[in-house]
């Protein structure tokens, strides 16, 4: 077992930076450093609470896909109203990521980390008991606002409290719970649809999430403030206190936390002007963080939300003219079961990404993922030309490949990169803006999908998404920035007057 360095080898009172304290590892008796110190209990708590936010996002967005046929029949919605329903949560994410996410740069990571989950729980409860479509729509939008805030805030508080070597894997592991939530959402739908014959069973689907969400909100009260953020705004004494809590372990080490002055210590010298995101020094970061994410969301959310509907329409054996409650529930259950099987590969994709992210780098995985998504969508589109078992194989093969490759690459990497290519002073604002631009693509595709599926057909819509995936690979290559192996403080140091960043697709040396 590794033990702390013998007294006298290192002076615990020597001033250091926040990240150097977090990255410090114990040593063996002969002085050889250990590979890692492992997460402290506070680091673990932050990880699990950040993971919960991504879990709820995946669960709610994909649960809406399962509940959609029931809600549409329950309130006799038109195609436009159905489009508004599917776009409401994503529109909220688009607004919340910028409107609330940027507040974490001003008021602190912890404050918004808590506020967003309280808002999510309140609106979730409102959606469960909504007396009419308008109220339900408002509640979906409100949940989206809260989840939008979670994009930059959860990423910031997690990445700013983890080691440099483990940051990418920890952020990806937390993001993986979006896939877990997606699978859980479809399974919750399947379980409820299998035991009910009522169109309003969608209320139960949302209702079962209320208590877990409330518990996560309570848990977020008991996390530390980001020491990086405190140091960056000049509150060094508070940063030392919070860093001590973050690194609390048995036996206690470090026994004394003393942060250094100056830029490396986070004295707040970096600009907080949001316009800096569009200046020459950070324009590349802004484009890389925003445009590929926008293109990825066009396909991920359109396919994700409507997978049950597409499967049921393509493979269903219930007459489309049968509008009875039993027929609607049967067709919905058929689509939900197929979607649950396919959505499992979201989780498989993110697990592979966690293993490869430090070996291959963010950019290589993102480009490979975009190309794989295009291939999967092309296979699914070709299914409309086949019949019988061949059609079934093409549909499932295409969607499975798409779900695997999107989480291996663009769906996960765009999230990681958006929180890594901006300085601490602008991390919440920059990542929030990128998420908002991305979710405008999700809103667009979710609103238009039910309309275009009827007007153009499945094959044409999927063909368009093949093109957007290929474009995502090209944009990633042209504006690539590799952040693998770079610490939070190294990224901060790249700010003006040293704006250049490595643009190789090779991962940085570990």
TrEMBL record:
The keyword Calcium does not apply. GO terms for cellular component: plasma membrane. It is a multi-pass membrane protein. Keywords: Membrane, Transmembrane, Transmembrane helix, Transport. InterPro entries: MFS_dom, MFS_sugar_transport-like, MFS_trans_sf. The chain crosses the membrane at residues 55-77, 83-103, 115-143, 171-192, 204-223, 298-318, 339-357, 363-381, 447-479. Its main location: membrane. Residues 46-484 form the Major facilitator superfamily (MFS) profile domain. GO terms for molecular function: transmembrane transporter activity. It is found in: Cell membrane. It comes from the Bacteria. This is MFS transporter. It comes from Dietzia natronolimnaea.
């Amino acid at each position: 077992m590794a033990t702390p360095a013998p007294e006298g080898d290192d002076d615990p009172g020597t001033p250091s930076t926040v990240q150097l304290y977090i990255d410090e590892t114990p040593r063996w008796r002969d002085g050889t450093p250990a590979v890692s110190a492992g997460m402290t209990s506070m680091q673990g708590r932050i990880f699990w609470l950040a993971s919960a936010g991504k879990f709820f996002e995946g669960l709610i967005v994909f649960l809406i896909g399962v509940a959609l046929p029931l809600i549409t029949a329950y309130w006799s919605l038109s195609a436009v109203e159905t489009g508004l329903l599917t776009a409401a949560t994503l529109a909220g994410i688009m607004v919340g990521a910028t409107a609330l996410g940027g507040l974490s740069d001003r008021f602190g990571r912890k404050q918004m980390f808590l506020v967003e989950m309280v808002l999510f729980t309140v609106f979730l409860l409102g959606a469960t008991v909504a007396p009419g479509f308008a109220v339900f729509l408002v509640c979906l939008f409100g949940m989206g606002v809260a989840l939008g805030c979670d994009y930059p805030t959860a990423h910031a508080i997690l990445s700013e409290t983890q080691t440099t070597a483990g940051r990418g894997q920890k952020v990806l592991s937390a993001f993986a719970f979006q896939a877990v939530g997606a699978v859980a959402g479809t399974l919750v739908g399947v379980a409820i649809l299998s035991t009910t014959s009522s169109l309003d069973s969608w209320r139960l689907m949302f209702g079962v999430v209320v208590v877990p969400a409330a518990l996560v909100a309570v848990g977020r009260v008991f996390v530390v403030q980001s020491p990086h953020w405190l140091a960056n705004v000049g509150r060094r004494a508070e940063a030392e206190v919070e860093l001590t809590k973050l690194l609390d372990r048995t036996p206690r080490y470090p026994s004394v936390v003393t942060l250094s002055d100056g830029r490396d210590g986070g004295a707040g010298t970096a600009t907080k002007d949001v316009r800096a995101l569009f200046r020459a020094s950070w324009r590349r970061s802004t484009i890389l963080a925003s445009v590929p994410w926008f293109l990825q969301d066009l396909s991920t959310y359109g396919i994700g939300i409507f997978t049950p509907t597409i499967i049921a329409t393509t493979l269903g054996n219930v007459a489309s003219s049968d509008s009875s409650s039993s027929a609607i529930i049967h067709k919905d259950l058929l689509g939900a079961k197929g979607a649950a099987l396919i959505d499992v590969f979201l989780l498989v994709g993110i697990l592979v990404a966690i293993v490869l992210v430090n070996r291959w780098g963010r950019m290589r995985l993102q480009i490979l993922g975009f190309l794989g998504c295009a291939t999967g969508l092309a296979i699914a589109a070709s299914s409309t030309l086949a019949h019988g078992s061949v059609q079934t194989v093409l549909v499932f093969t295409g969607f499975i490949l798409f779900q695997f490759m999107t989480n291996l690459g663009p769906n996960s990497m765009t999230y990681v990169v958006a929180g890594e290519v901006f300085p601490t002073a602008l991390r919440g604002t920059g990542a929030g803006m990128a998420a908002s631009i991305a979710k405008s693509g999700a809103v667009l595709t979710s609103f238009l999908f039910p309309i275009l599926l009827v007007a153009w057909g499945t094959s044409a819509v999927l063909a368009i998404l093949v093109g957007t995936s290929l474009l995502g690979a090209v944009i990633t290559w042209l504006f690539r920035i590799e952040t693998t192996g770079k610490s939070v403080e190294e990224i901060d140091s790249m700010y003006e007057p040293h704006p250049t960043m490595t643009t190789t697709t090779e991962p940085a040396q570990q």
